Amino acid sequence: MALITIIKNNIKKTCVVTEGTTVLNMLIENGEKIYSPCGGNGTCGKCYVGVEGNVSEPCDVEIANCPNGVRLACKTIILGDATVFLENSKMEVCTSVEDSQIEIDPIVKNENDNYGIAIDIGTTTVAMYLCDCNTGSIVGVKGFSNPQSSFGADVISRMDKIIKDNSSLNLQKNAVLTEINSAILELSNTNNIDISSIHSAVICGNTVMQHIFAGIDPSTIAVAPFEAKTLFENGHYKASDLGLNINLNGTCLLAPCVASYVGGDITAGAFLSMVWNR
Questions:
Q1: 154/121 Cα distance (integer angstroms)
Q2: Rg value, the chain, Cα
Q3: DSSP letter, residue 69
Q4: Which residues have C-beta within 8 Å of that of residue 170, sequence separation ≥ 6?
Q5: Are 194 and 243 in contact (CB under 8 A)?
Q6: Do residues 118 and 244 lie in contact, with contact meaning Cβ atoms separated by under 8 Å?
Q7: Whole-angstrom distance, CA of residue 27 vs CA of residue 71
Q8: What is the layout of strands, in order, in the sheet containing 70-72?
Q9: Is 187's pLDDT higher than 80?
Q10: Which residues pair with 84 in a beta bridge?
């Protein structure tokens, strides 16, 4: 076993890992975000980290492309105790919305303290909105980069990870779920709202993102005949079963999808725009 120190923004944390694992896998397993568009296949050359200690020698790709002292996380194998240095990069996430005149019909009806959370899980970014379900007003917004980018920049790369190792399904689900629950807590604290007052959640995303969030293997979407296991026609779940940190009896709706590559994000957009009236 090896003792690894991770330093990010001058904050240190330590973990113990099995020797022989890559720095990339170590970071993913410990909840750290790292940009890895190819999902660790060693083809993009963008998972830069600083490393000191007992690790493998730089490979030819690193020697040719990495500045001095910089390594590729997917190519660096941990051989013993080491220190990994991370930069905290930020991504601008668009969370602006336009007012629309729609009739309010919340999933859960409660005369007092009835809040809901709307979540758009994009492949690259996640946008969240805390809403007053009695008035339809937006109380707070939060956006962040999707931490699943460590498994690949696109849905094909992420499904490929799951096909090769099914344990990646839970890793990808938990990566985004952890960030979502952290954002829910931040939104509730900032707006002086008790989490128990959040009775419902609506989640949309492309069909693959919704499968992963629900803990459903999306692999069949990647191979012919490219059929999804579900289109969430009846996508009602108990929020606690999905791991969402809202009211213990809260309800979650995953938006219905149209097809394997036409997801609930398209359905939600069509519903909001009421395009059929135009």
A1: 13
A2: 21
A3: T
A4: 215
A5: no
A6: no
A7: 14
A8: 11-17, 2-8, 78-86, 48-55, 70-72
A9: yes
A10: 6, 51
For residue 21, count CB atoms less than 10 angstroms from its CB and return exposed for 0-12, middle for 13-18, buried for 19 or more: middle
Q: Which two tokens stand for residue 90?
A: 């930020």
- Tens of pLDDT, residue by residue over 93-115, are 666 666 566 677 777 777 778 99
Q: Is the dihedral of CA 104, 110, 114, 119 positive or negative?
A: negative
Residues β-bridged to residue 116: 131, 200
- In this model, does residue 31 exceed pLDDT 90? no
Side-chain half-sphere exposure of 192, counting CA atoms within 13 A: 0
Report helix, strand or coil for 124.
coil
122 in helix, strand or coil? coil
Mean predicted confidence (pLDDT) in 118-138: 92
pLDDT of residue 100: 61
- The size of the chain, in residues, is 278
The tokens for 22 are 């890559």
CA nearest to 80, candidates 162, 19, 170: 19
CA 160 to chain centre: 17
Q: What is the pLDDT of residues 195-226, one digit of tens each?
A: 999 999 999 999 999 999 999 999 999 999 99
Tokens found for residue 186: 């931040």
Q: Which tokens is 131 given?
A: 């809403």
Q: Answer whether residue 236 shows pLDDT above 80.
A: yes
Phi, psi angle pair for 147, to nearest 5°: -65, -10
Residues linked to residue 238 through DSSP beta bridges, in sequence order: 251
- Residue of 259, 255, 151 lying closest to 202 (CA atoms): 255
